[in-house]
Write a structure and sequence with these properties.
about 220 residues; Endonuclease Iii, domain 2; Endonuclease III, domain 1; 2 domains; binds iron/sulfur cluster
Length: about 220
C-alpha cells in the first residue's frame, strides 16, 4: 500500500478505536511554549512541577522578563537542565515582546503556517516539536507534533522508515495527513502508544492495526 492510503487507513482504524476529539486550546500560546520548553528531556511530572513553580515565582511574563536568570533557574529546578532552559525561556519571551510589543503569541494564528513555524523555530531551544505543540494545541493550526509515541508507532507501522528521525516523521506525516485529521491522529496515536504499542513489549495480539503493521508481520 502506498504511503497516503496507508496513513489514512491507520487514521481510520485509530478513529474506530479511540474516537474523534474536539479541539480545545490547552492554554495560551506563550504558556504552551514555556511549558513545552520545560518538558524537553524530562518527564511530564517534573515539567509540570517546574511550570507551576515558575508561575508561582513570576505571576506574569513581564515579571519573569524583569527577573534574574538565577531565580528562573531555581524555580524550574524540578524540570532539570535549568541552566540551559532558563536563559532560553527568558530570551524567547524577550523576542516575543520585541516582535509584538507584548508577550503574546496570538499573532501566529493569522500568518502563513510556514512563516509561523519558521518564526518559532528561530527561537533558541525551539525545534519542530515544540513549535508544533504551540501551533496545534494552543492555536489550533494543523501541525503534527511528533513525540516519542507518535514516532515509535509510525516507525513500527511503516508509515515512516524504521529509523526515521522525529523531524523526518514530522515532515512526512505532516505532508500526508489532511489538516483536519492532524489533531485526532496525534491524540489517538499517542493513546495507542501508551495503551497498546508500548516501547518494550507492544501488545500486538490485542491491536486493531495488525493488518497494516510492518512490525507485526516481519519485525518480531
Ligand atoms: S501491531 Fe504491534 S507493533 Fe504494530 S501498531 Fe499494533 S502494537 Fe504496535
Amino acid at each position: 500500500m502506498s504511503s497516503r492510503p496507508k496513513v489514512m487507513a491507520v487514521h481510520s482504524l485509530l478513529l474506530e478505536e479511540y474516537g474523534h476529539h474536539e479541539w480545545r486550546p490547552h492554554r495560551d500560546a506563550t504558556s504552551e511554549l514555556v511549558r513545552t520548553m520545560l518538558s524537553q528531556n524530562t518527564s511530564d511530572v517534573n515539567s509540570n512541577r517546574a511550570f507551576a513553580r515558575l508561575q508561582e515565582r513570576f505571576p506574569t511574563w513581564r515579571e519573569l522578563l524583569q527577573g534574574d536568570v538565577e531565580d528562573i533557574v531555581e524555580a524550574i529546578e524540578p524540570g532539570g537542565l535549568g541552566r540551559i532552559k532558563a536563559p532560553r525561556i527568558k530570551s524567547a519571551l524577550q523576542a516575543i515582546l520585541e516582535e509584538r510589543g507584548e508577550v503574546d503569541l496570538d499573532f501566529l494564528k493569522d500568518i502563513e503556517l510556514d512563516e509561523a513555524k519558521a518564526w518559532l523555530i528561530s527561537l533558541e531551544g525551539v525545534g519542530p516539536k515544540t513549535a508544533a505543540c504551540v501551533l496545534l494545541f494552543s492555536l489550533g493550526r494543523p501541525v503534527l507534533p511528533v513525540d516519542t509515541h507518535v514516532l515509535r508507532v509510525s516507525q513500527r507501522l511503516g508509515l515512516v522508515a524504521p529509523r526515521a528521525s522525529a523531524e523526518k516523521a514530522h515532515e512526512i506525516l505532516g505532508d500526508t495527513l489532511p489538516g483536519e485529521a492532524i489533531y485526532d491522529f496525534h491524540v489517538n496515536t499517542v493513546t495507542h502508544g501508551r495503551r497498546v504499542c508500548h516501547a518494550r513489549r507492544p501488545q500486538c495480539d490485542s491491536c486493531n492495526l495488525v493488518p497494516l503493521c510492518d512490525y507485526a508481520h516481519k519485525g518480531r
